[in-house]
């Protein structure tokens, strides 16, 4: 993405890219036979994450924001294979905890490509990160409260610091992911300049940061623009040569780039978002623009495969029971999130899904919770026991939010790259559920239950 690229080649590249790198991969675009083979081989529930598609998403971001620093918000998917693919694609890592910093380091991100954003950070996390910063002095810490700055200074930290600002505007697909205006995040906008100048007496203040929330979609561009404009103004204020300027390097306007979960939703027009962003931020006079996409990088590169085990007609409609639940994919239960679902068929003696009628069904998991439901009133090719369902756009906040509630082992994950599939997270066993208890009791390494189940 060099600036030297001539106009002619640029046009050609864009045209080719449009075919090779479409703005979204729908659940209908996945190769059904391939997914069925993977489910047969590795059983269900099974996450499948396509690293090639993950790379394409990185490439589209870099192409749309050619002169921005693009930082992958790793909390969307911290799998080692994903982190390595993203690093190779050229993105930095934005981490929200000591654990994420640890994973990013292990995946080969050097300090100069590591950003740690502390939100009410536990002491343990700060101790760890300050320790890492001694070895990796190019690491940047982003903090959003004066208390956090004090706690960093108390630990002897005087390195690179970015101030997280609460811009007073937010965006998001659900109240629980709208962060831009939530008081939890960032120093209030009208105090930000003063706090940044004071911080510069103790730290190397390199940037200002705001994150509007997750799920910026075409209808919410206005609040994105508003946030970006405010951040541009703040940066100009702080670097005003006439008023004790700070030596800032960048303005980080966060992530939240939406992906179309619904089959009929349009993908984000990334070049248009990039243009709106550049326009809104205004003249940065040498400062870099930084963005922190998480979901956009991984969401449509992942599916969750699950097997139908029960089909139950009820007066209120047909309930399709599957072997994945809210413990495997929490978003529908937590955010009322919509995930597209495709019936890939495979039930003994049943025709190909394309040759079946359509039924309006609810799809529910095995957890003893009413909220353990992926959808209601969803039109699917008439499901039968033994069918395989693909739950689409599951690569972001999917495995990442998986948990062991109801003593359910977490699913396995397979990564696809260059036509090859490899298991990157083995399926948890029943014995994994009790590891920490057995260790606490000083008990033998193996569980009383059958280890391999
Ligand atoms: C979660 C988060 C992001 C990424 O959000 P997405 O919606 O996944 O793009 C970026 N920056 C910060 C600080 C975050 O907390």
From TrEMBL:
InterPro entries found in the cross-reference section: Ala_racemase/Decarboxylase_C (IPR009006), DAP_deCOOHase_LysA (IPR002986), De-COase2_CS (IPR022657), De-COase2_N (IPR022644), De-COase2_pyr-phos_BS (IPR022653), Orn/DAP/Arg_de-COase (IPR000183), PLP-binding_barrel (IPR029066)
Keywords: Amino-acid biosynthesis, Decarboxylase, Lyase, Lysine biosynthesis, Pyridoxal phosphate
Residues the entry annotates as binding substrate: 295, 331, 335, 369, 397
EC class name: lyase
Residues modified as N6-(pyridoxal phosphate)lysine: 75
Reaction equation(s) it catalyzes: meso-2,6-diaminopimelate + H(+) = L-lysine + CO2
Molecular functions per Gene Ontology: diaminopimelate decarboxylase activity; pyridoxal phosphate binding
HAMAP family xrefs: LysA (MF_02120)
Family assignment from sequence similarity: Belongs to the Orn/Lys/Arg decarboxylase class-II family. LysA subfamily.
Annotated function: Specifically catalyzes the decarboxylation of meso-diaminopimelate (meso-DAP) to L-lysine.
Subunit structure: Homodimer.
UniProt name for this protein: Diaminopimelate decarboxylase
Organism, as annotated: Halorubrum halodurans
């Amino acid at each position: 993405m060099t600036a030297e690229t001539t106009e002619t080649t640029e046009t050609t590249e864009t045209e080719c890219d449009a075919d090779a790198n479409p703005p979204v991969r729908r659940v209908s675009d996945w190769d059904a036979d391939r997914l069925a083979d993977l489910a047969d081989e590795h059983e269900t529930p099974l996450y499948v994450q396509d690293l090639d598609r993950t790379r394409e998403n990185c490439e589209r971001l870099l192409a749309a924001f050619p002169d921005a620093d693009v930082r992958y918000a790793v909390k969307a998917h911290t799998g080692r294979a994903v982190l390595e693919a993203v690093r190779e694609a050229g993105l930095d890592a934005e981490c929200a905890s000591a654990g994420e910093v640890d994973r990013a380091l292990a995946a080969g991100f050097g300090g100069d490509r590591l950003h740690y954003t502390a939100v009410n950070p536990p002491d343990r996390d700060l101790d760890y990160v300050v320790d890492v910063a001694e070895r990796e002095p190019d690491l940047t810490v982003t903090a959003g409260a004066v208390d956090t700055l004090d706690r960093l200074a108390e630990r002897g930290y005087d390195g690179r610091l970015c101030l997280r600002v609460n811009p007073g505007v937010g965006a998001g697909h659900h109240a629980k992911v709208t962060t831009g205006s939530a008081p939890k995040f960032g120093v209030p906008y009208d105090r930000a300049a003063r706090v940044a100048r004071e911080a510069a007496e103790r730290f190397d203040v390199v940037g200002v940061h705001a994150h509007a929330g997750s799920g910026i979609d075409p209808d919410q561009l206005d609040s994105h623009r508003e946030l970006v404009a405010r951040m541009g103004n703040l940066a100009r204020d702080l670097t005003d040569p006439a008023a004790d300027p700070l030596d800032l390097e960048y303005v980080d306007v966060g992530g939240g780039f939406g992906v179309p979960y619904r089959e009929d939703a349009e993908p984000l027009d990334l070049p248009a978002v990039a243009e709106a962003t550049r326009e809104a931020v205004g003249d940065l006079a040498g400062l870099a623009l930084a963005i922190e996409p998480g979901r956009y990088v991984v969401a449509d590169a992942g599916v969750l495969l699950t097997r139908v085990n029960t089909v139950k007609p009820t007066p209120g409609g047909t309930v399709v029971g599957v072997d994945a639940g809210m413990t495997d994919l929490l978003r529908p239960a937590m955010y009322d999130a919509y995930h597209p679902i495709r019936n890939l068929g495979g039930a003994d003696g049943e025709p190909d899904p394309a040759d079946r009628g359509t039924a309006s069904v609810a799809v529910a998991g095995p957890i003893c919770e009413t909220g353990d439901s992926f959808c209601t009133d969803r039109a699917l090719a008439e499901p039968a026991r033994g069918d395989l369902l693909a739950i689409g756009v599951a690569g972001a906040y999917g495995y990442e939010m998986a948990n062991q509630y109801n003593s359910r082992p977490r699913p396995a994950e397979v990564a696809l790259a260059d036509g090859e599939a490899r298991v990157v997270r083995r399926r948890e066993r029943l014995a994994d559920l009790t590891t920490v208890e057995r260790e606490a009791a000083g008990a033998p390494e193996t569980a009383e239950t059958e280890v391999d189940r």
